[in-house]
Design goal:
This protein has two domains: 5-145 and 281-328, Response regulator (Rossmann fold), CATH 3.40.50; 147-279, Rossmann fold (3-Layer(aba) Sandwich), CATH 3.40.50. 37% of the residues lie in helices and 19% in strands. It contains ten helices and 14 strands. It has a six-stranded parallel sheet, with helices on both faces. The protein has a four-stranded parallel sheet with strand order 7-6-8-9, with helices on both faces.
């Protein structure tokens, strides 16, 4: 797995300015585009929602890449990720502005498809990352890790922490989130196949909102007094759940794992609320997405399986079946290594 410790530190600093962005630029007055030398490559990042630490980090990675190849970066997005169609106005605006590329983490696999395809018809290259749409709605998907690998990593972690038996629940993001639902389905299959003594008793949704996720954690413990563990495959959810558990009677009794960032989770690992959790490097994910978008804009790749392109410091990547590019495997953070990372 390409896990760039050196660059992570830079990304943490860059994330402070990630949401400020730069003004997007369209084509030149003579109709030239960035891809034919008519101007800078204008690439807009559209996360599920603004103010999310995970996307602050991933989009800062994208901004760094765009600076490296001389393009123009902008970040736009809704304040909340709970509206499946909430990203549509931002897609429409980006297309009207004539941006060359749009990098999107989809809140819903179908709700934004029409808008994305209209943007593509207008010449915008569309790359999804973190959470995909229907493949017919984009040119490439930058996959942080395989869905199977992410699901298995989280199940393995919770199984180890609860002695491979007991009741567990899932605290997810939005009910329509493509990646979340895929992971949950695969976690259910993994539990059934390989962990017969673990029972998944509930799946609840915090909508990637801190307070909602905090309240859902409290409700889970009230509804399931024998709960042994919680899996939260969302950075907002796992940190909110950890915050609740850290001051509750359940601390040290109810295990918590999932997907989080080191800076969010450090205090909860060090105080014993959380033993271990997983993630990939979100800065690398955004960085890779930006370089893939550049390759599409410049015509170096078309999104067909077998296409290869260079992604700056990360090296060469190959497009796989279904128009996807795989970043790497999940990484497990624990007390022994968490201070090695800063994002």
């Amino acid at each position: 797995m390409k896990f760039q410790t050196r660059r992570v530190v830079a990304m943490a600093a860059a994330s402070l300015v990630a949401t400020v962005g730069l003004a997007a630029c369209g084509s030149d007055d003579d109709g030239g585009s960035a891809s034919d030398g008519g101007g800078d490559l204008a690439i807009t990042f559209l996360p599920k929602n603004l103010g999310n630490p995970y996307f602050d980090t991933s989009n800062a990675g994208g901004e760094k890449a765009i600076e490296e190849f001389g393009g123009t970066y902008e970040e736009v997005g809704p304040d909340s990720g709970d509206d499946p169609a909430g990203q549509v106005p931002f897609i429409n605006t980006a297309a009207q502005q004539g941006v060359n590329g749009l990098v999107v983490s989809a809140n819903d696999p179908e709700a934004i498809c029409d808008a994305l395809n209209e943007a593509r018809d207008a010449g915008v290259k569309v790359v999804t990352f973190d959470s995909d749409t229907n493949p017919d709605c984009r040119d490439l998907f930058i996959n942080q890790a395989t869905a199977e690998g992410i699901a298995k990593a989280q199940v393995d972690l919770i199984a180890e922490q609860i002695g491979d038996k007991g009741e567990v629940a899932v605290l997810s993001a939005a009910a329509n989130a493509t990646n979340q639902n895929a992971w949950i389905e695969l976690m259910e299959a993994e539990l059934e196949a390989n962990h017969p003594d673990i029972e998944l008793v509930d799946v609840v949704y915090g909508n990637d909102d801190d307070q909602t996720s905090f309240d859902k954690t409290a409700a889970l413990l009230q509804s399931h007094p024998d709960l042994a563990g919680i899996i939260s495959p969302t950075t907002v959810g796992i940190s909110a759940a950890a915050r609740y558990l850290s001051t509750s009677k359940a601390k040290g009794k109810v295990a918590l794992t999932g997907l989080g960032t080191p800076n969010q989770m450090r205090e909860y690992v060090k105080d014993g609320t959380v033993t271990a959790f997983a993630l990939w490097n979100p800065a690398d994910l955004g960085y890779l997405a930006a370089y893939a978008t550049q390759a599409l804009i410049d015509g170096d790749i078309t999104g067909e399986a077998g296409d290869t392109f260079e992604a700056g410091d990360l090296g060469e990547y190959t497009v796989e079946d279904g128009g996807s590019v795989l970043l790497g495997d999940p990484f497990v953070f624990n007390a022994d290594n968490i201070d090695d990372f800063d994002f």
